[in-house]
Write a structure and sequence with these properties.
single chain, alpha/beta
Length: about 260
């Protein structure tokens, strides 16, 4: 096995303290605009950052809303150029140069791929380009297995295919959706897998349940945004999720942490 470069290992260690992670994505505005509870990203994250290990954001939000002094590690979104009102979300391109990535001193970059879409080749080529340009500088690449508006594709067979392809093309970490039989996704992916949200859930406990299930089945952590900052009680949810990820508590204990924090 090839020894990982010191710089890349250092960056990955900062993102995954103890081998686990709670990433907070606030990049949704790049295709959704000022979505609910993320109108002012700086205000949204202020009470949450103490529970998270890294922020996933665009360069625009990074520069305008995040204090460079004492910031959490940053995963920089470097794909985009689509919107929710356009014909498709899958027609993405790279948005950021390697010079900009280095200038911003980020810990990693993130890029979406849309496997099975009409733009599969284009978005996979975006991933390969990002891996190639970041490799020489020791910057990790997180591939995001996005599905656009085709949410029905969130099953283990499809997501295992997506994750394995991303790893084969050089991604250092893969972000994918939770699904039933999530261990089948993790087992087929030779790099760390981070969970995004699963199917729409109706209760806070369901969020805790799918996160706990995914961790037990091999995920190294979570990259949850709307399940946190669109929650009626975002700080209690962040506390409960952090306990599952970093302290290995079960769902009942996490639910009690949530309730205790909610009640003051």
């Amino acid at each position: 096995m090839v020894e990982m470069d010191w710089g890349k290992k250092n960056r990955l260690t900062s993102l995954l303290p103890g081998g686990r992670c709670f990433f907070l994505p606030i990049d949704h505005g790049y295709f959704l605009g000022p979505t609910r509870n993320l109108v002012k990203p700086g205000e949204t994250i202020a009470p949450l950052v103490e529970y998270c290990d890294a922020l996933f954001c665009t360069r625009g939000v990074l520069r305008s809303a995040i204090d460079p002094v004492g910031s959490l590690p940053i995963i920089l979104r470097i794909s985009g150029c689509t919107s929710i009102v356009g014909r498709t979300l899958t027609d993405e391109a790279l948005t950021t140069s390697i010079e900009e990535i280095i200038r911003l001193n980020v810990s990693a970059v993130g890029i979406s791929v849309f496997i099975g879409s009409e733009h599969e080749h284009q978005t996979l080529h975006n991933l390969v380009t990002a891996v190639n340009m970041c490799q020489d500088y020791g910057i990790p690449v997180m591939a995001v297995t996005a599905v656009g508006k085709e949410l029905a594709k969130r099953d283990a067979r499809y997501l295992a295919l997506c994750c394995r392809i991303c790893a084969e093309l050089g991604a250092d970490v893969v972000k994918t959706y939770w699904c039933e039989d999530f261990d089948k996704v993790v087992d087929g992916c030779p790099v760390p897998v981070v969970m995004a949200g699963g199917p729409k859930v109706e209760t806070n406990r369901e969020v805790l349940e799918f996160v706990h299930d995914g961790i037990q089945r091999g995920a190294v952590g979570i990259n949850l945004g709307r399940n946190v900052w669109q929650n009626q009680y975002p700080v209690p949810m962040a506390k409960a999720l952090r306990a599952i990820v970093h302290d290995d508590v079960d769902v009942d204990v996490a639910a009690k942490i949530f309730e205790d924090a909610k009640n003051g």
